């Protein structure tokens, strides 16, 4: 049997994204408390995410949401990673407040944000090991968050993934039209 790479590429990307999900899950967490949520977006749901970015551009006037809406359509899958907000009780003052009790509920615990960043780094490192194209996008993550795709998460980031001859997520042209 002969299998052309073009015929099995999509399955390869999906397997790699599953490995990225595992890498994000097993990344170190502050105090060993796991409050990270992870999901893979594929097929028609990528289009739904793109449509949400277009809607958000209309609401905010931010044209780079339009650019990112077009850009994610070139992904074969999108990994979304978010964190639920949970005060870690360290009284570390990284959030700008002296104690966790003084911190307003609307201010995220810095440890939660650090955990999210470490999970994203682990996922992207895994993608690099598989020689895949990625880019971390807060815009698409925010759209996924607004759509409620990671229940209970107050901060969500997206990582579109592609296997192509040139990374489609870099050298992007800004949108000038609405």
Q: How do the strands and helices of this protein lay out in sequence?
A:
Blueprint: H1 5-26, E1 36-41, H2 44-60, H3 64-71, E2 77-84, H4 110-129, E3 133-134, H5 138-146, E4 153-162
Antiparallel strand pairs: 1-2, 2-4, 3-4
Account of the 3D structure:
The protein has five helices and four strands. The protein has helices at residues 5-26, 44-60, 64-71, 110-129, 138-146; strands at residues 36-41, 77-84, 133-134, 153-162. It has a four-stranded antiparallel sheet with strand order 1-2-4-3, sandwiched between helices. Helix 1 (5-26) packs antiparallel against helix 4. The mean pLDDT is 94.
Tally of DSSP β-strands: 4
**Number of helical regions:** 5
Morphology call: globular
Report the helical percentage: 40-55%
Structural class: alpha+beta
Strand content: 5-15%
Largest sheet: 4 strands, antiparallel
- In spatial order, strands of the major sheet run 1-2-4-3
| Rounded mean pLDDT score | 94
Measured between the Cα atoms of the first and last residue, the distance is 49 Å
Which regions have little confidence, pLDDT < 50, spanning 5+ residues? Answer: none
Brief characterization of the structure:
By secondary structure, this protein is an alpha+beta fold.
Which short descriptors sum up this protein?
178 residues; alpha+beta; four-stranded antiparallel beta sheet; 5 helices
């Amino acid at each position: 049997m002969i299998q052309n790479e073009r015929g099995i590429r999509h399955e390869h990307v999906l397997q790699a994204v599953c490995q990225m999900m595992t890498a994000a899950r097993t990344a170190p967490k502050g105090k060993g408390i796991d409050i990270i949520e992870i999901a893979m977006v594929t097929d028609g749901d990528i289009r739904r995410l793109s449509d949400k970015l277009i809607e958000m551009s209309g609401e905010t006037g931010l044209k780079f949401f339009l650019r990112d809406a077009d850009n994610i359509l070139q992904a074969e899958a999108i990994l979304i990673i978010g964190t639920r907000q949970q005060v870690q009780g360290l009284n570390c003052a990284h959030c700008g407040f002296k104690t966790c009790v003084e911190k307003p509920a609307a201010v995220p615990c810095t440890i939660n944000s650090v955990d999210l960043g470490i999970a994203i780094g682990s996922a992207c490192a895994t993608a690099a090991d598989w020689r895949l194209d990625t880019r971390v996008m807060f815009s698409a993550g925010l759209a996924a968050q607004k759509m409620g795709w990671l229940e209970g998460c107050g901060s969500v980031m997206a990582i579109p993934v592609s296997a192509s001859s040139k990374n489609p997520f870099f050298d992007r042209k800004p949108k000038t039209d609405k």
